[in-house]
Amino acid sequence: MADRGRARNRRGGRVDGGGSTRARRPASARRRTGAAATETTRTRLRRGLAAKRASGAAKVLGMSTTRRAAVVAIVVCALAFTVAVPLRTYLSQRSEVREQEAQQAQLQQEVAQLQDRKNQLGDPAQIEAEARRRLRYVKPGETPYIVQLPEDQPAAPPQQTGPQEVPEGSWYENLWNQVSGG
Predict the structure, then answer these.
(1) Residue 8 — φ and ψ, nearest 5°?
(2) Residue 78 phi, psi dihedral angles, 5° rounding
(3) Which of 39, 57, 101, 154 has the fewest CB atoms lying closer than 10 Å?
(4) Tens digits of per-residue pLDDT, 26-38?
(5) What are the DSSP calls for 68-129, one per residue?
(6) Distances in whole angstroms, Cα of residue 104 to Cα of each of 7, 41, 87, 94, 155
(7) Reduced to 3 DSSP states, what percent helix, strand and coil does the chain have, rounded to the nearest 5?
(8) What is the torsional sign of CA 153, 158, 161, 166?
């Protein structure tokens, strides 16, 4: 850290054994002054520091870039699997809640209809009308009339033409003959 401002050769050692590098630089390079010289020096220093930081992180972890990427991928997959099961449970429970709420609304509507029906049947006139309509009850002295329309009559069973065979013998004899094949 002490040699930050001093130049280094390609192998990382100091030039001139720790002395200044001004003697080796050409005169044109020594004369650079102003914003351009400062900008290039700053840019070089920033690049060098960024490279040192990146190489320092690799050294601290002791892994190459590929290995670090593999570890990150494994961690991401582990997190995905950790979140997947609770998420699936949450979504399935949410759909069950919706179904139960729909069923509850339907049952509440049915209860309301049954309450209305109960209130209607609490009236004696309604009970009398139901008995007349459904059970065809009449009051004493009334004459009931039933009008049957053609579509109300049940269809007549088809009649068999020709003589019917009457089995001879008793039922168990007929059964034995059918089973024995005789």
Answers:
(1) -125, 150
(2) -60, -40
(3) 154
(4) 555 555 555 555 6
(5) HHHHHHHHHHHHHHHHHHHHHHHHHHHHHHHHHHHHHHHHHHHHHHHHHHHHHHTSHHHHHH
(6) 82, 76, 26, 15, 44
(7) 65, 0, 35
(8) negative
